[in-house]
Amino acid sequence: MSTSALDPVDGGAALASSVRELASAIRALGAHAPRDPDALLTAEDVGALLGLSPRTLKDRAAAGVFPHRRFGKHYRFSREDVAEIVQLTKSEVRPDRGGMRAA
Known about the structure:
Mean pLDDT: 79
Structural class: mainly alpha
């Protein structure tokens, strides 16, 4: 039986090499992570900002009217998406929600 297979020094060197390789892979992944963790907003976040219902945002995003990102069934909006949505909704005519009407 070979003693090198049971040698703790060889095992330690292999472990250290594996840890360095793992650390390198983690650093590489971290380099591609978004710098701003709040870069993508939920429909609920955007709805609260713009006074629109999250359902309306999701429906219009699904129809291709509003820019968005989709992860499975989840809709996310970047700050650029929100700015474009603001521009799109400015030109819409909003229905009168009550009050007095001119005769």
